[in-house]
Amino acid sequence: MMIQSDAECGEHIDRISSLPCNIIETILEYMPVEDIIKTSILSRKWRYRWTSVQRLEFTNNFFEKSKHFEICSIITEVLFLHNGSIHDFILHIPPNYSIKMQCLGKWLLFLSRKDIKEIQLASLQIDPPQVPSHIFSCQDLTYLHVQGFRLPIAPNFSGFKNLTFLYLFDVIFESDTCEKMVSGCPLLRALTVSNCSGFEHINVSSPVLQYLLIECDQVMKSICLKKAKDLVNLTLWGYRLEDNFEGDWVSDFMKSLQKIEKLHLGGGYIQSKSDAVGPQMVLRGFEFNKCCFSRLQIVNITVGTAYKCALSLIRFVLAKSSSLEILNFKVGFGLNQLSTRSISRISRNLLRMKRASSRAEVKLVRH
Asked: How many domains does the chain contain in total?
């Protein structure tokens, strides 16, 4: 009986509390924030342990469980009771909830004094709210993700000197916010600008940029990557070519891709208009510079029914890419898809093109 009693007692031994503090904090960081706070009632020893957690996440689950309470007050209290550094702050606002931007401004100002390193802000509101200017006070940021907000630039903004990852989705920029924001990040390694509006130019000042994705309804008027010599992965999607588009920058832009390994291009960056740069003009610039994509391995090109400019580009890429492994050419999307005869003609042209890489495989996809 004594042995059984000892075994039963053994089942209630508090093994978690005896773990090293860093392990306990890691466990807490991956728990829902509402459960993290509940640990304060376990014992005196646990009462304030949650206040040292460095990662706080307020997402759909939190909003759903807190819908009968004043959400802004809860988040404010959690932050102001916190003792120590906060490295990661995640706030995803569901479509049927709202947050007072005055509160968000206070949170961001508070976080700027807590050594904040990573911030994710996402709003699914129909009317995008404006990000408070205190976001620019978080000068220690290394990672920033903003989705579904209006983003003005602060008058005294001098850049995010430590930012290495910047992800912008469905953001409405005001004035020249995007240009100033990107050019003010000298250590940027990855940049994504997807479905954003209110900008026409991007000037990357970071010499260590490796990943760039730009996906917008319209083609950019200019992209400057002269300092980004280490770019290895580039995606450009633009569906509308503006009448006042000036394509002179395209040649200089493509010349800067000496270390590119993966290239993804949408139709808007390949087609030409009467007042835009033509494919032959771009290719002359390439030849003059003796451009060679020696590291390029993967290429994806997607166009509609206007495919002739794309073929000129493919011919050049195949001839200049000695490490190329795969080139996917997707053509004919939309209501007016190409005929079978046109597809056959394209296939024959692709087969006749010279290839610098003996391993290069070209796939034609009709969609």
From this structure: 2
